[in-house]
Write a structure and sequence with these properties.
CATH superfamily of the domain at 8-86: Winged helix-like DNA-binding domain superfamily/Winged helix DNA-binding domain
Strand order of the largest sheet: 1-2
Radius of gyration: 18 Å
CATH architecture of the domain at 8-86: Orthogonal Bundle
Shape: elongated
Distance between the termini: 17 Å
Strand content: 5-15%
Mean pLDDT: 93
Largest sheet: 2 strands, antiparallel
Low-confidence stretches: none
Order of helices and strands: EEHHHEEH
Number of strands: 4
Number of helices: 4
Length: about 110
């Protein structure tokens, strides 16, 4: 038995942020390049760019800055804050669901005897 869930944030019925965008941004931060991040995540550059741009438009803020001279990509402070808060939300939900899972296991064992 296992409780399953997925978390994402929507605005007007459209995805703003979720695990996929979290992965894209963290990989951009690591690689300093959307192209390298897309390759590492085994997705097309076009798909990664589309998700990044859609999130920026829906949030009304920039998530990445592009270097003037070297064209490298860095996350904005806002993007870092969103990643940090989203990952805390995921951790909090995982802890809550773990407790609920334990409760359900106890209840089912008791009723099954």
């Amino acid at each position: 038995m296992e409780i399953k869930y997925k978390i994402w944030i929507e605005k007007d019925g459209k995805v703003v942020f979720g695990k996929g965008r979290d992965n894209i941004l963290k990989t951009v931060d690591e690689q300093h390049s959307l192209n390298a991040a897309a390759k590492k995540l085994e997705m097309s550059y076009r798909a990664a760019w589309g998700r990044l741009k859609a999130s920026e438009e829906r949030m009304g803020m920039k998530l990445v800055d592009i270097g003037v001279h070297d064209k490298s990509m860095q996350l904005t402070e806002q993007a870092r804050a969103i990643i940090k808060r989203f990952e805390k939300l995921e951790k909090d939900v995982e802890e809550l669901l773990h407790e609920a899972d334990q409760d359900f296991r106890k209840l089912i064992r008791k009723s099954g005897k």
